[in-house]
Amino acid sequence: MPVDFIKEDKTAVITLNRPEALNAFDPELSGAFSEALVNFMNDDSLWVGIITGAGNAFSAGADIAALLPAIKKNSDEQFKKAPNIMRGLSIWKPLIAAVNGAALGGGLELVLACDLRIATENAMFGFPEVTLGLVPGWGGTQRITRAVPSAIAAELLFLGRPISAARALQTGLVNRVVPRSDLMTAAKSMAAGLCRCAPLAVRVAKQAMVQGLDMPLEKGLDLEKSLNDYLVTTEDFNEGCAAHLEKRKPTFKER
Ligand code: CAA
After folding, report:
1. Whose CA is nearest to atom 40 of ligand 1?
2. How far apart are alpha carbons 89 and 82 in whole angstroms?
3. Predicted local distance difference test score (pLDDT) of residue 72
C-alpha cells in the first residue's frame, strides 16, 4: 500500500509508504494520499491527523520520472484526480507533520500545508525545483512566504539549497526538533493535547486562521464573529464552561 492509514483513538496516522523512492509522489501515491485525506476528513471519530513518511525521508516531492512529465502535459489534471491539502482540499481538522527526514519540493509543500510541524534532528527542508527548471507547484511559493520571513523564503525558493532542522526551528518553520526515536511520541503527545480541546473550536480556530490570512482585517473580524456565533450554540461550549466552573475535566462530544 502506498499509504498506511492507522486510527489510534481520535488520531489518524497517515504514513507515506514508498520509502524506496524517498516517498516521492507518483500517481499511485498521490491517489492513495488523496483518498486517505478524504477518509480522515469524513470520519467523525477522528479529530487530529499526523502525516509522516516511512523510512528515512519524509518526502522527496513529486516523482521526477513518473509525475513531472504528466504535469507538463496537463498541470490541472493531477489535482482534479487527486485533490489534497496542498491544492483543492480544505480540511479544518488539525494536521501535524511528523517530519522524519528530507522534505523537499512537494514534500516541503506538504509540510507547509500542515498546521503543526515536528522534525527529527536530521530532517532537511528545501525547494530544489529551480535546479530542475521549475518552481514549486503545490502551493510552495505562496505558503512559504506565509510561514517564514521573506529573506528565508527567497533563499529557499531562489537558491534551491535545503536548510537544516535547526535552521527550520530558528526561522519558525517547525514547532519542535526531536531525536528520531522520539518523533512519533512527540507527535502523538501533541495530538493528545489537541484532543483534550473542544474539537469544533479547534476546527473553527484553524478555519478562521487560514481563511483570515487572505482577508482584510475587517472581513477577518466578521469571519471570526460568525464562527464564534456558531460555537456558542454547541453543546461542547456549554460543557467546556460547566467543566471549568465545576473544576472537572470536560467531556467533549463534537456537537
Ligand atoms: N522523484 C523520483 N525518484 C526519487 C526522487 C524524486 N523526487 N527523490 C529520490 N528518488 C529516488 C532516487 O532516484 C533513488 O532511486 P534509485 O535507488 O532507484 O536510484 C532513491 O529515491 C533514493 O534516492 P537517492 O539515491 O538520490 O538518495 P540520496 O540519499 O543520495 O539523496 C536526495 C537524497 C537529496 C533527496 C535526492 O534523492 C534528491 O535530490 N532527490 C530529488 C529531490 C527533488 O528534486 N525534489 C523535487 C521534485 S519536483 C517537485 O516536487 C515539484 C513540485 O512542486 C511538486
Report:
1. 60
2. 9
3. 76
The tens digit of pLDDT for each residue in 77-87 reads 777 778 999 99
CA distance 193 to 50: 13
Residue-range domain boundaries for the chain: 3-195, 199-245
199-245 CATH choice from 3.90.1530, 1.10.12, 1.10.287, 3.30.870: 1.10.12
Calpha distance 112→103 (Å, rounded): 10
What percentage of the chain has pLDDT greater than the value 70? 99
Domains 3-195 and 199-245 share a fold: no
- Quick one: angle between helices 140-147 and 106-113, nearest 10? 50
- Please say whether the structural domain 3-195 has been given the CATH code 3.90.226.10: yes
pTM over 0.85: yes
Distance 212 CA to ligand 1 centre (A): 35
Do residues 60 and 101 make contact, with C-beta atoms less than 8 angstroms apart? no
Question: pLDDT tens for residues 164-190?
Answer: 999 999 999 999 999 999 999 999 999
- With a cut of 50, which residues of the chain have pLDDT below it? none
Q: DSSP state, 20?
A: G
Is any ligand 1 atom within 6 A of the Cβ of residue 102?
A: yes
Q: Is 129 in the pocket of ligand 1 (CB under 6 A)?
A: yes
